[in-house]
Amino acid sequence: MTVMTDRPHMLTEDFEAVARVAAREVEGLRLEFIDGVIRSKAVPDGDHDRRDRVEKPLAYARTGIPVYLLIDREACDVTVFSEPDGRRYANTRTVEFGNDVELPDPVNVTLRTEVLKDWVR
């Protein structure tokens, strides 16, 4: 999902600093900066649970990424990490597939997860 706004959330120079920190913290992480919005991609591997649930949220919170959405097809749940305080995310909410979940500022979207049941491994 890409969020479009009328102005960038950060300057290119700030993004480059964030990308350097994130690359050191999370192996296989790739950040893209498009129209002032950060999108992240990572290469999953066998140790994805620790990486996705511990390492990525810590790295993203430290760099100020406002919302991290984790969709876990094995556990059949969605976790929203938000409100980074510079060390970690202060708010974490997990819902099972089939329940709606709110993605807070700057995304401001209600994600309907019922359709995700069709993508379970």
From TrEMBL:
Putative restriction endonuclease domain segment(s): 50-109
Gene3D superfamilies: tt1808, chain A
Keywords in alphabetical order: Endonuclease, Hydrolase, Nuclease
UniProt cross-references to Pfam families, sorted A to Z: Uma2
Organism taxonomic ancestry: Bacteria, Bacillati, Actinomycetota, Actinomycetes, Kitasatosporales
InterPro entries to which the protein is assigned, alphabetical: Nuclease_put_TT1808, Restrct_endonuc-II-like, Uma2
Gene Ontology MF: a single term: endonuclease activity
Keyword rRNA-binding: no
UniProt organism field: Streptomyces yangpuensis
Name this protein carries in UniProt: Uma2 family endonuclease
Coiled-coil residue windows: none
Superkingdom, natural source: Bacteria
